[in-house]
Each structure stands twice: as structure tokens, then as C-alpha cells.
Specification:
Elements lengths: L1 H17 L3 H16 L3 H9 L2 H13 L6 H15 L5 H7 L2 H11 L4 H14 L3 H9 L2 H8 L8 H14 L3 H9 L2 H15 L6 H14 L3 H9 L2 H11 L7 H14 L32 H4 L92 H10 L5 H12 L7 H6 L10 H10 L9 H14 L4 H9 L9 H10 L11 H5 L8 E2 L7 H14 L7 E5 L15 E3 L9 E6 L2 E5 L14 E5 L6 E9 L13 E4 H5 L6 E2 L2 E11 L12 E10 L6 E5 L6 H14 L5 E10 L5 E9 L6 H8 L3 E6 L7 H13 L4 H9 L1 E5 L4 H6 L24 H15 L6 E5 L40 E2 L2 H21 L5 H10 L4 H13 L26 H17 L3 H14 L4
Parallel strand pairs: 5-7, 15-16, 15-17
Antiparallel strand pairs: 1-18, 2-4, 3-6, 4-5, 6-12, 7-11, 8-9, 8-12, 10-11, 13-14, 14-16
Helix pairs in contact: 1-2, 1-4, 2-5, 4-5, 4-7, 5-8, 5-38, 7-8, 8-11, 9-12, 10-11, 11-14, 13-14, 14-17, 16-17, 16-27, 20-35, 25-29, 31-35, 32-35, 32-36
């Protein structure tokens, strides 16, 4: 049947080209039109595959060369060509080769006084010109001059023909050679006058498509430098700025406003960042490496690509996805990668696995002391550095009974219920609650202390936030513990789980950095307690992004109120911030801080520039800074103008995070999502070629947001995401180690290696202690499979550390599922693979300016020690037959929502696994939808990830019946119920009926070719063609219009 259909279509097409009978040709055209008017585009593509485009073009050429041309054949032929040409990407080249391009242009010239014929010619020219090289050829043959004759000043007649002419002209001006020709002949001024005329007369918005077509012509011609110069010289910026502002709220002219904004943004003079150099403001001498030279000043060629080459582009080169960590070349992956070092070198990692040889003689006495002290060499904090004793004493039996009480219907619900139950207090996981960490006395939690703290708020004047901030600077430099802080801690205890300010200060003294830090950040010292509930995604008012862009453009057009006052700069150490002025005060020289420069634009508006990664001139995305000197009930706008990512979740409801010192002293020490009018868009600052992947003309992006601070004269901190510093990690590990019950939990902390900056990279081992030192128990202990978890190889992905924090606390807790995990596995955990980058406030790189996640193939101990030794540990485990069941590296993503998994490549997930894992085994927990992840949710995810490892083990074919029996006993449930819970955990909630997150309510197109939606253009032209084909009265109406046109002498 398919062969008969194919042969029938081929017969029709052959007859169409060879027949000299007019009626036969018209019949075939009607048949083809009927065939293509119903169904889907598959019919059209099938026709194209059988040579339909060539057949129609040859028929056009043959028919046009008759004298006179038969328009009864040509008009339906043009309609078919336009319909087919929209789907045939090579129609322009085919028309050029078959001489149909010249023929159509000649017919258009002859039809200037016949609007109906001209309209059909223009439809064909539009699809031919979709290919830039074909459009350039049309420009050489005088097509632009012809089209400008067709586009008159405002008139209410021939609107369809005029609209088609503007659209064809816009297509032609996508060619750079055509744009230069238009500039040289003064068409920019003519197009501006035409736009102004149509804009001023079209009060009813009846001619929006024509006005938009004229703007698209201007947009395309201003992609070249000479076009922008001509546009600026003709006053185009002021004209379109005025028009856009006056119609910003008018939805009826939305396509026009959108095109105006694209032109205005495109014509803003491009400039370099207001920085001395694009390189990092700090120097990081790395042994054995050459310090990179600062990039040279930007050249004229880097501001734009004005080459003569004509390119057919379907998308913006900057519109790329951030899948940097997903390997797309499967050939780079090998099933069993070879060793990158001598095999005998792996023996050094034997010392990191003492659990495989430890005898546990202490178990004989059951003395209750440090049962694994013989296997671990913990580094305890000196007593002098921790004057305030930690409260770790509680009856262990009561802990176990409390843990048993939490057994609920399913494993996942147990984890989530535990997290939710702890949020109003101190967000402690079971281990923290059982050991009393973070509580000064029983019942002294935030609800109980809130009222007296608020009553004491009037006493905050005696403890000035700016003065306390100044003390933190002094304390960081001299290392003294001030009595003022000691008194403050006694009067206002922090009540933060697994945090101790004294211990933090002691750890901070040991943290090494190439940056000369001048203070301790108050949020890191005081601690963070999650808010009682998660915050919803920010609902953004539609149009706010356009308002912000127009405000930026107003600086250029109306600069009278622009201050451009530098109020903070790492490049100007001698710059003093005036405490008596109305300017905000900024600071960032603390651990993980990143702010390089602050410029006061207007009284309450600031441009901020963040620092590049150390030894680099790129990767600007992470920010974390202090701001003070604010006034109450005043909205401040902040614009970070040198971000690099092409898009961000800030466009889809995410907000920056804010920490207020006054709020913390009032008993609310929390990082919260803050900011309104949050937008992320491309600006006019040009990136250096070296930092833009070798591409010229790429620009930075602006993150802009407005904040009304909760208090006046406060000291606040603003960050990209919830900060989690290296010192916070080391403090947490100390407290975590002290909290565990040594009789049940094997917890060992040691140093994997030292970083280039001299910081120890911690390695943590967690499993269950053997029941005794009998051979059977020790054998079971030593043969537990390994799980390896790492995090924070990219410093700017701080959410990974919060997930890791939740995983660590859950694994040492008294929860039944955690006990099962410890009994089933040995966990090797590297919580922070890039300590130096975290300390320095980098976004992606290490001290040497390298992305460590790109160094796994061939790392070296001299330049990438953490990756080198982490890989060495994995190789050692594999070499002794203890290959980890799962190796997982926690990351964050600036553009993706929720939680997702990457395998080793785009084609392989859980590669090398014995069983296949399909998408049915991975499902989304929809309870997170619509929320901005807080630290509670992130920690909860860490616990749930660990639980997922247990579920994966239960579902594996190698799972022992003993483990299932133990699971049933520990979870206090029957085997059948356990199976039901596990099935429920693995299948999750059904999401088939739920739509994904809604798209951004307003997205500004950045590229020249993205202003017109191709699908929308196809549909609209199809509609016009269909209406024309079935309008019985159109021929008479067209002849009437043509007669009137000729009577008025319009050529």
C-alpha cells in the first residue's frame, strides 16, 4: 500500500512538471492543496522527501516564462510553495539552483500595482529568504529597494501586503551584507521614520504586525556596529525608550514592546567591566605552577563579531545548557579504567581502612569507653580553646527507647517525620536530640525563649551590631576572646544544633587561606537555625524584568542622577567607607566571602561585581558579602553585573539568602530567602575571549533584586545560597564525633591529605560496631560492602554540603533505618573535596584555578591532591576486591529544579551494574514542588539518600535473608509489611497527572534570531494562506484595491 501511495504521488509530481495542459496542472495543484490542508506536517515532509519542492519550483519557472504569465496557476502554486517551504530548510538553495529565486523577484516587480499577486510573491520570497545566504543573494539583486517601495507611510489599505513586505525585509536583513548595504543607503533613518509614523497613527493597535515587522528590520540591522551607530545617530534610543515606557502595561502591543526592548538592549554601547583586570583580585602562588598573566585589555574585535561570513544560525550561541558535568562522549569511558599510578603506591591507603584489620579487644570488657580509640587517631580541640563544655550526657537506654518510638509506617515517612518534628526546635536529627547537643538545658528551645528575647529587644542598643561586627574583625586578627562576646553568648545563647561558637572560633584559627581575612562572618560564628517552615517560590510580577531593563537603559539616556560612586573595592585597599554618608557599607574579606566591588549608582541602587575564582578570570556566580548602614523601611536595589551562567533559577522563583545580625540576637539566627523583583538577564558588559570559551562578543549577565532590610542600622549578610564554610564543617565533625555512642557506632575521622593551601581534607568512616570480637562477628564486620560519598568539589554548590550534613547526622543517629544502614555497609565519606576553593569564596575551581571535577582522569598529587587521593582510595578498595556498591558525589545546579541523578554519561546510568535501572525505579517526591529548598529540606534529602541505598540493597539479588530478617526485627514489623513499605518507598508518588513547574512568566529573548517564534510564524503564515485560498470574494476585493492603487498613481 505504501509503495502504491509513493508511486501515485510521484506520478502526480511528474505530471505536474511535464504537462502542458493548464487544466491538468490546476487539478494537480488542487489535489496537492487538499492533501496538505489536513493532517499533520508529516504529509508535507513526505512530499518534500519525494522531490515535491523541486517539482513545484520547476513548475513555477516554466509557468512564469510563458507570455503572459498565467496567474491562475501561479497563485495556487505560490501558496503551495510557501506552505511547503516553511518546512523545507533547503528551499532557498533549491530555488537559487533552479532559478526560481530570480523568477519570483521579477514577478514581484511586475506585480507592484497588483496587491494580490504581489502578496503571493512575497510569501514565496519570505520562505526563500529563511536561509541567510539566499537572503544575501536577494539583497544583491535589489530586493530591499523593491520592498521599501511596497512599505508606505501609514495607510489602512493593503495591510496584508505591507505586513508581508516588512517580514520579508526583516528576513533579508539577517544577512550582514544586506545590513551593511541598508546602512550605507540610509535605510536605518527611513525605517525609524516609518515606525514613528505607523506608531503615532495606530492608536487602536490594529497594525501591530506591521509595526513589529518594522522593528524586526531595525533589530536585525543593528546587529552590526555600523547599524547601531546609525541608529544612535538618528535618535533611535530616545525614541524607542519613550515608546516602550509609555506602552509597558499595554498587553495589546506586547509584541511591539518586546521588539523595542530587544533593540534597546542590543544598541546599548558595549563596554568592559569597571574592573582593573578580569583576573581574580587575590594572588594564589601554587608550588610548581606559573602564575597566569592577567588577560590583556579588550580589543575592538572582542566587543562584537562583525565578520563578513554569513552564517545560518538557529539558536543563540550563548543559549547553552549547563551540563558541564555530564560526559557526552561515551568513548571516553572505559569499563575498567587502568591504573594511573604504580600498584605498590596503593598500599598507602591501607592505613585508611583499619576497620578491615582492627581486633576490637575492648569489646571483651564492655567498659563503655572509647571502643574504637585503638583504630582512630582523632584530633581533639585543646581545652583552652573550648572554655564552654559540651553537653553530651544522657542515658543511652532512654535514647534507644526514644528512637524506637519513632517507628512509623514507612522508612521514608520516618525520615521526613523526624525532620519535620525537629524543625520548630533546633533541627536535630535523632542523634543530636539523644545527646542534647545545642541545648543549654532541657526545654530551652526557641519557642520557650522567644518571648523574653523579644522583650529584651530594647536592650539591643547596648550591643551595637556595627560595634559587634567591628569586634569580629579585631578578634579575627589578634585571636583574643573578647569579654563582650562571652557576655553576649551567656545572655543570648544560640541554641543551634551541632554548633558551638567557641569551638568554631578555635577551628577558624586553624583554617588556612591565601586571602588575608580580616573578620569572622557573624552567621558562621553564631550559627543557623532553619525557619519553622519552607519558603514558597517567589511569585514574580509579569513585566518586572522589562522594567528593570528599562531602568538600566535610562542610565545611558538620562544620566543626570547617576552617581557612579565606588563605595567598596578589593582593588583599592586604601578606600575608606564613609560611615557618616547615606551609602551602604560592604565587606567580604571573610571565609567564603565573595564581593569585589560595590558602586553606588543612585541613592538606593548599587551595582556589585563578584570576584573571579583564584588563579582564574572566570567562574563568577557565587557571592557572599556583608552589608550595613541601611535605613529602615527603605528598599535597596542590588545588581550583580558579572554573572556568567546563561540562565538561572533566579528567573523561576528562587531568591538570594539573607542573615540579619539583629534578628539573630533576637533569637532568630536564620538564613532566610529574601528579595523581591528578582530577575536574571544579559547585560552589555563584554566578556573576555579567554573567559568565554574563545567566542567573541559574549556578554555577562545581571542578577538584580530588591531588599527591604528588617531593621535599620543592622549588619546583614547576603549570599547566593545558604553558606557552608570549611570551618563550619570541621566544627560539625568534631561535635558529631563527640555525640556518637561508641558502643554502637564505629566513627573514625582522619586526614585524607592536605590541600595546596595546607588545609586537611577530612575522611570519615561510619559503620556499626561488631556485636563482639568473636571471629564470626568480626568476619561479618569486615565483609560489609563499602559505600563512598563525596561532596563539594565545586565550592559554589553549598547546597551539597547541607545534604552531606543531613547524611552524616542521619548515619550516626539512633533511627532504626540508620542502624540498619550501619550494620549493612561501611561508609567512606569525604565531605569536602575542595576545601581551598570553599575557603577562598570560589565558585568552581581550586587554588590552582582548575575545575577539580575535570581532573579525575589524570590527577596528580602535587596539583590536585584531594582528587588524586580520593581516586587512590577507590582504586585501593577495588584492588582488594572491595569495590564500592555506590559512589555518589553530591552537587548543586544553577538551572535545574528538585533532585536528579547523573550517571557517568548521557547514555549510561549506573553503568557497570549487573542489573538495568529504568526510570520506573526513579520517581519525584512531589512534596518539594513549589518550594525553595531550605537547609531542613536539604538535610532531609541527605537522610533520604542514605535510605535509598538501603532500599537499593533490599532490591538487589545479592541481598542476604539475614539482612531482611534483621530489618523486620529492627523496624518492629512483619516481613509482608516491610515489603509493602519498601515497594511504596521505591515507587514514590505518581506524578503522571501533575504538570512540571510552570515556565518563567516572562523571558526576554537575547539573540537576534529568537525574536520570532518559528512555530508561531509557521502557524500564522499557514493561516493567512488558508484564508486566502478559501476567500471567495478576495479576488474581486483585490482587483478593486488594485484599481484604486493605480488610480492614485502608486507604483
Amino acid at each position: 500500500m505504501a509503495e502504491r501511495e509513493a508511486s501515485g504521488l510521484q506520478v502526480l509530481l511528474h505530471t505536474l512538471q511535464s504537462s502542458c495542459d493548464r487544466e491538468s496542472v490546476l487539478t494537480i495543484l488542487r489535489v496537492l492543496a487538499d492533501l496538505l490542508s489536513v493532517g499533520t506536517d508529516r504529509r508535507i515532509h513526505y512530499l518534500i522527501s519525494k522531490g515535491g519542492s523541486e517539482a513545484l519550483l520547476r513548475t513555477l519557472v516554466d509557468t512564469a516564462r510563458t507570455d503572459p504569465p498565467d496567474y491562475e496557476v501561479l497563485l495556487p502554486l505560490f501558496r503551495l510553495l510557501a506552505k511547503v517551504g516553511l518546512r523545507d530548510k533547503t528551499i532557498g538553495q533549491k530555488a537559487l539552483e533552479l532559478e526560481a529565486l530570480d523568477v519570483t523577484l521579477i514577478l514581484a516587480r511586475k506585480s507592484l500595482s497588483h496587491s494580490q499577486r504581489l502578496l503571493h510573491c512575497l510569501w514565496a520570497l519570505r520562505v526563500f529568504a529563511a536561509r541567510v545566504t539566499t537572503g544575501a543573494m536577494l539583497g544583491i539583486n535589489g530586493a530591499m529597494e523593491l520592498l521599501l517601495k511596497v512599505i508606505p507611510p501609514y495607510t489602512h489599505r493593503h495591510s496584508r501586503t505591507i505586513r508581508a513586505a516588512t517580514e520579508v525585509l526583516a528576513m533579508l536583513l539577517r544577512s550582514k551584507s544586506n545590513s551593511r548595504r541598508a546602512v550605507n543607503q540610509g535605510y536605518v533613518t527611513s525605517l525609524l521614520r516609518l515606525h514613528q509614523d505607523w506608531h503615532s497613527h495606530d492608536a487602536a493597535a490594529a497594525c501591530v504586525p506591521i509595526r513589529r515587522g518594522l522593528l524586526l528590520c531595525l533589530r536585525n540591522v543593528t546587529t552590526i556596529r555600523s547599524g547601531r551607530e546609525a541608529f544612535l545617530a538618528a535618535g533611535g534610543m530616545e525614541l524607542l525608550f519613550s515608546h516602550a515606557q509609555s506602552h509597558l502595561e499595554d498587553s495589546s502591543v506586547e509584541p511591539v514592546v518586546s521588539a523595542m526592548l530587544q533593540i534597546l538592549r542590543q544598541c546599548c554601547p558595549r563596554s568592559a567591566l569597571p574592573l582593573a583586570t578580569a583576573s581574580c583580585a587575590y594572588a594564589a602562588p601554587v608550588p610548581g605552577s606559573v602564575t597566569p598573566a592577567p588577560p590583556p585589555a579588550l580589543t575592538d574585535e572582542e566587543f562584537e563579531d562583525d565578520s563578513d561570513e554569513e552564517l545560518d544560525k538557529d539558536s543563540d550561541p550563548e543559549d547553552m545548557k549547563e551540563d558541564d558535568d555530564l560526559e557526552t562522549d561515551v568513548d571516553k569511558l572505559t569499563a575498567k579504567p587502568g591504573l594511573d599510578r604504580p600498584e605498590e603506591e596503593l598500599l598507602q591507603y591501607e592505613a585508611m581502612c583499619p576497620e578491615l584489620s582492627c581486633g576490637f579487644e575492648e569489646l571483651e570488657s564492655q567498659s563503655g569507653g572509647d571502643l574504637n580509640s585503638g583504630c582512630a587517631n582523632h584530633q581533639h580541640i585543646p581545652a583552652a580553646a573550648s572554655p564552654k563544655p559540651l553537653r553530651v550526657g544522657q542515658d543511652q537506654g532512654s535514647q534507644e527507647r526514644a528512637g524506637e518510638d519513632t517507628i512509623q509506617a514507612s522508612l521514608l515517612r520516618m525520615v521526613k517525620t523526624a525532620g519535620a518534628r525537629s524543625r520548630p526546635a533546633t533541627t536535630l536529627h535523632p542523634a543530636g536530640r539523644a545527646n542534647g547537643l545545642g541545648t543549654a538545658s532541657p526545654g530551652n528551645e526557641s519557642p520557650g525563649i522567644q518571648a523574653p528575647l523579644e522583650e529584651d529587644a530594647r536592650g539591643l542598643g547596648a550591643v551595637s551590631c556595627p560595634r559587634l561586627s567591628a569586634f569580629l574583625c579585631t578578634a579575627a586578627r589578634c585571636g583574643d576572646t573578647a569579654a563582650e562576646l562571652e557576655e553576649l553568648l551567656k545572655s543570648r545563647p544560640t541554641h543551634v544544633a551541632f554548633h558551638d561558637p567557641h569551638l568554631f572560633m578555635a577551628k577558624a584559627k586553624r583554617t588556612r587561606s591565601v586571602v588575608d581575612f580580616e573578620m569572622l562572618a557573624f552567621p558562621d560564628l553564631w550559627g543557623h537555625r532553619p525557619p519553622p517552615s519552607a519558603q514558597s517560590m517567589l511569585e514574580r510580577k509579569c513585566g518586572i524584568q522589562r522594567i528593570k531593563i528599562l531602568e538600566d537603559i535610562r542610565r545611558l539616556i538620562q544620566p543626570s542622577d547617576v552617581l557612579n560612586k565606588v563605595v567598596f573595592s578589593l582593588d583599592e585597599p586604601g578606600l575608606l567607607q564613609d560611615t557618616d554618608s547615606n551609602s551602604l557599607r560592604f565587606f567580604s574579606k571573610f571565609e567564603s566571602g565573595n564581593l569585589r566591588k560595590a558602586i553606588q549608582v543612585r541613592e538606593c541602587e548599587y551595582d556589585l561585581l563578584i570576584n573571579a575564582d583564584l588563579s582564574s578570570s572566570q567562574h563568577q556566580q557565587w557571592f557572599y558579602f556583608q552589608v550595613s548602614g541601611m535605613r529602615a523601611a527603605t528598599q535597596y536595589r542590588f545588581s550583580i553585573v558579572n554573572c556568567e551562567k546563561p540562565n538561572s533559577q533566579f528567573n523561576y522563583g528562587m531568591q538570594p539568602t539573607l542573615y540579619s545580625m539583629k534578628e539573630a540576637l533576637l533569637g532568630r539566627p536564620s538564613w532566610v530567602r529574601a528579595g523581591s523583583e528578582v530577575c536574571y538577564y544579559r547585560n552589555h558588559y563584554v566578556r573576555h575571549v579567554a573567559g568565554a570559551g574563545g567566542a567573541r562578543g559574549r556578554c555577562y549577565y545581571t542578577l538584580t533584586f530588591s531588599i527591604t532590610f528588617p531593621h535599620g542600622e543592622d549588619v546583614c549578610y547576603v549570599a547566593y545560597h545558604y553558606p557552608y564554610t570549611y570551618t563550619a564543617l570541621m566544627t560539625h565533625l568534631d561535635l558529631l564525633e563527640r555525640s556518637v555512642d561508641r558502643r554502637q557506632v564505629y566513627f573514625r575521622r582522619e586526614v585524607l591529605c592536605h590541600t595546596l593551601g595546607g588545609n586537611p581534607c577530612p575522611l570519615v568512616t561510619i559503620t556499626a560496631m561488631p556485636a563482639s570480637n568473636s571471629p564470626d562477628h568480626l568476619e561479618q564486620f569486615r565483609h560489609r560492602p563499602y559505600q563512598v560519598i563525596t561532596a563539594r568539589v565545586h565550592p559554589g554548590e553549598s547546597n551539597a554540603s547541607w545534604v552531606m550534613k543531613g547524611a552524616l547526622e542521619f548515619l550516626v543517629s539512633g533511627a532504626p533505618a540508620a542502624r540498619l544502614l550501619r550494620e549493612a555497609f561501611i561508609f567512606k565519606i569525604i565531605p569536602m573535596l575542595n576545601p581551598d576553593g570553599v575557603v577562598s569564596g570560589n565558585h568552581r575551581c581550586s587554588l590552582s584555578g582548575e575545575d577539580l571535577n575535570r581532573q579525575w582522569l589524570s590527577p596528580t598529587a602535587q596539583r590536585q591532591p584531594t582528587v588524586y587521593h580520593a581516586k587512590g582510595l577507590l582504586l585501593y578498595l577495588s584492588s582488594i576486591g572491595r569495590r564500592p556498591v555506590v559512589f555518589c558525589d553530591f552537587h548543586g545546579h544553577s538551572q535545574k529544579k528538585n533532585v536528579f541523578l547523573y550517571g557517568c554519561s548521557i547514555k549510561e546510568t549506573l553503568w557497570q551494574a549487573a542489573c538495568t535501572v529504568g526510570t520506573a525505579h526513579l520517581s519525584e517526591d512531589v512534596s518539594y514542588r513549589g518550594l525553595q529548598f531550605g537547609t531542613s529540606e536539604l538535610e532531609e534529602m541527605g537522610a533520604m539518600f542514605c535510605l535509598g541505598l538501603l532500599i537499593l540493597e533490599f532490591k538487589s539479588t545479592s541481598c542476604h535473608h539475614q539482612l531482611l530478617a534483621r530489618a523486620a526485627a529492627v523496624l518492629n514489623t512483619e516481613d509482608g509489611a516491610l515489603d509493602f513499605h519498601l515497594q511504596r518507598c521505591s515507587t514514590g508518588s505518581s506524578t503522571a497527572e501533575l504538570e512540571d513547574e510552570p515556565p518563567c512568566a516572562e523571558e526576554v529573548e537575547y539573540s537576534v534570531g529568537s525574536g520570532a517564534d518559528p512555530d508561531a510564524s509557521f502557524a500564522e503564515l499557514d493561516r493567512q494562506i488558508q484564508a486566502c485560498a478559501f476567500d471567495a470574494d478576495e479576488g474581486a476585493q483585490a482587483e478593486q484595491e488594485d484599481a484604486e492603487w493605480r488610480r492614485k498613481g502608486i507604483p
